[in-house]
Specification:
This protein is α+β, with helices and mostly antiparallel strands. It folds into two domains: 48-152, Orthogonal Bundle (T-fold); 196-323, T-fold. The chain has nine helices and 17 strands. It has helices at 30-45, 51-54, 58-64, 75-90, 100-106, 118-125, 157-171, 265-274, 279-288; strands spanning 6-13, 16-22, 71-72, 133-136, 141-144, 176-181, 184-189, 197-202, 211-217, 220-226, 231-234, 237-240, 255-262, 294-299, 303-306, 314-316, 322-323. Strands 1-2-6-7-10-13-14-15-17 form a nine-stranded mixed beta sheet. A hairpin with a 2-residue loop joins strand 6 and strand 7. The relative contact order is 0.14. The structure holds adenosine monophosphate (AMP) and magnesium ion. Adenosine monophosphate binds at residues 95-97, 99, 103, 152, 154-155, 225, 241-243, 245, 269, 272-273.
Length: 324
């Protein structure tokens, strides 16, 4: 993060800690409005937590009606669901918003986390086909065709929320700001003196806040997905929270994290998951072939590899890591 910005507020959101920063000038009464807006969004999207938390969730309402009926949702939720389902059809084998039943079976990041049996995983995987969702634009209804299907927007909700917050800062005419939803960052405008914002890249092997370097950016989003974020340790093995939609097990990978740079935070968040497929080689090739998406890959053996479009913005500061 930049050094001269001012923290307006820090608040819990979507299972993480969110921070809103701005430069000293302009309307700073924006913070409570942003917090309210994002909290309300979370309430309408969440599929986690106790029943009370899910009772206001439109996505959970769709899940609860799976195999039974279509559910009408509001325009914003519909648009996000449509984007998610389309992305799931496009990125088969990497991103799948229908992965809910498998995510639920593992429970990684929650108190009831456990390693499901192979038979259980196979059973839940059968309920994740993105072609078995029906979206009706006119009525804004969503139907999951089979009982037990579950939408889970965990891989893109923070990205979307960060875009919403950024739009609010821009609308308020703030000269610059930084929104950090637990590693899902949007840099608005420039930092102090028109300089770029420095967005740290979290070390995958040290505690929160320890960085291995930074990206110098302006008016863009920087989102990291790492195998360190939510972990289940069982039987001497570590299982991370990003599930391979083809196997139902966490991605087998040589990557510790992927940091994606993109204009839209929704796209960056989506691609931080898409780029997990195929490890460094597969992820690097996929990102390089996609216009407007750049990424920094950190491998388990501490190599750092950046795609051509963001190489010049990257500064590595931790000597334990080498540029590859
Ligand atoms: P992120 O924090 O953006 O890396 O997203 C991880 C979250 O997305 C997980 O906690 C799950 O809720 C969900 N998820 C896990 N694997 C996938 C996947 N392959 N496609 C879509 N969502 C996933
Ligand atoms: Mg993501």
């Amino acid at each position: 993060m930049g050094v001269h910005e001012r923290t307006l507020t820090t608040f819990p959101l979507m299972g993480t800690s969110a921070t809103l920063c701005t430069l000293g000038e302009g309307d700073t009464d924006i913070a409570p409005a942003v917090v309210r807006r994002l909290r309300n969004l979370e309430a309408r999207l969440t599929v986690n937590g106790p029943v009370e938390a899910r009772s206001r969730s439109q996505v959970e309402a769709v899940n609860l009606a799976s195999g039974v009926s279509a559910v009408a949702v509001d325009a914003e939720v519909y648009s996000l669901l449509r984007t998610s389902v389309r992305a799931s059809r496009e990125h088969r084998g990497s991103f799948n918003a229908l992965i809910g039943p498998v995510v639920k079976a593992w429970g990684i990041g929650f108190a009831d986390a456990r390693v499901p049996s192979a038979a259980e995983i196979e059973g839940q995987l059968a309920l994740t086909d993105p072609d078995e969702v029906e979206l009706e634009d006119e009525s804004r209804t969503v139907a999951l065709h089979r009982v037990g299907m579950r939408l889970d927007l965990g891989a893109i909700a923070k990205g979307y929320a960060a875009d919403v917050a950024a739009a609010m800062l821009r609308q308020a005419g703030l000269p610059g700001g930084l929104i950090d939803l637990g590693g899902n960052v949007v840099a608005v405008g420039t930092a102090e003196g028109g300089r770029p914002w420095r967005v740290g890249i979290q070390s995958p092997f040290a505690g929160r806040g320890a960085i291995i370097g930074h990206l110098s950016v302006q008016d863009t989003s920087v989102v990291t997905s790492g195998i360190y974020e939510r972990v289940l340790e069982a039987g001497g093995r570590r299982f991370h929270h990003m599930i391979d939609p083809l196997t139902g097990y966490p991605f087998e990978t040589d990557l510790a994290s992927v940091t994606v740079v993109a204009a839209s935070s929704l796209d960056a968040d989506l691609w931080a998951t898409v780029a997990q497929r195929g490890g460094l080689a597969g992820g690097f090739a996929a990102v390089s072939a996609e216009p407007g998406i750049e990424a920094v890959f950190v491998t388990l053996d501490r190599r750092v590899v950046a795609t051509a479009g963001c190489r010049g913005q990257l500064t590595l500061t931790d000597r334990a890591f080498s540029l590859g």
